[in-house]
Amino acid sequence: AGTPYNVDRHFTANELGFNAPTNNALDSVSDRDFAIEYLSNVSILSMHLSRFAEELVVYSSQSFAFIKVPEEYTSGSSIMPQKRNPDAAELIRAKTGRIFGNLMGLLTIMKGLPLAYSKDMQEDKERVFDSYDSIMLAVASLNEMVKGLKVNEKAMRKALEKGFPTATDLADWLVRNINIPFREAHHITGSIVKLAESKDVGLSELELCEMQTIEPRITDDVYKALDVMNSLNSRKSFGGTAPSSVKVQIDEALSLFN
Questions:
Q1: 150 pairs with which residues across the strands?
Q2: Pair 201, 207: CB distance under 8 Å
Q3: Does residue 2 surpass a pLDDT of 90?
Q4: pLDDT at position 153 over 80
Q5: By CB distance 3.0 to 4.6 Å, which of 25, 35, 77, 156 could disulfide with 83?
């Protein structure tokens, strides 16, 4: 409620290491926004970690085999001796639900309280401290998993043979080289994809004469666009996924910690 004494709250705030005193004494004791904002930020971070962990789980599975998670962050199957379960990644996903629960718990505690302080508010501690412990463990575990991650480049490249990943590149080539609208290029590409499907081959495995039965103006140059690595390297617009672009993004991210 404030005080009738001539105190210097700015001096006190400075001595305690705060930037400034709060502007309203009643708000000071009734507010838990700082804890709610912390839990919200932790929840957002945890959500992103969970999505990353999900990719580790999926891509390390036998169906994909794109990566291998460090063995110290896995455990043996209870029935299949050859199987390693990505336990740490799975637990990061699970911790996210717990962290979300802490945020919703504190929001629910605060929603029905009048001004100013109520004893209910002491329940903020357990939720904040628990979320802190959970997120620090998740970050540390994921960091170490990434450091020890082994990538199966051969399996990844083999996966790119499926699903006609360069179909859009073919459409783009038609637009640039034949000077036709994208909607027309899209239709032509769809027809070429159907032809490749009927022959059970990839786009780059089609003969030039076969593609020319659908669009006579296609030339040998089209095969450059159908090369997967050329497709990847061409995505070099700002923020794109070409290796050169990703390298720039990584360097920028690392610069934040220097």
A1: 68
A2: no
A3: no
A4: yes
A5: 77
22-51 per-position pLDDT tens digit: 999 898 899 999 999 999 999 999 999 999
How far, in Å, CA of 6 to CA of 82, rounded? 74
Strands (E), 6-143: 67-68, 75-76, 84-85
Interval 69-118: pLDDT, tens:
999 999 877 777 667 899 999 999 999 999 999 999 999 999 999 999 99
Residue 119: both structure tokens together: 């004893």
Which tokens go with 106?
Answer: 């504190």
Helix, strand, coil percent content, the chain, rounded in steps of 5: 65, 5, 35
Separation between Cα atoms, residue 246 and residue 253, nearest integer Å: 10
Q: Please tell me what DSSP assigns to residue 151.
A: E
Average pLDDT over residues 64-71: 95
What single letter denotes the amino acid at residue 16?
A: L
Q: Which two tokens stand for residue 40?
A: 């919200």
Angle at alpha carbon of residue 157, lines to 154 and 160, rounded to 5°: 150
β-bridge pairing 150-151 and 75-76: unpaired
Within a 13 Å sphere around the CA of 152, how many CA atoms are in the beta-carbon half? 16
pLDDT digits (tens, 9 = 90+) for 237-254: 999 999 999 999 999 999
Give the Cα separation of 169 and 226 in Å (integer).
7
Give the residues across from 85 on adjacent strands: 75
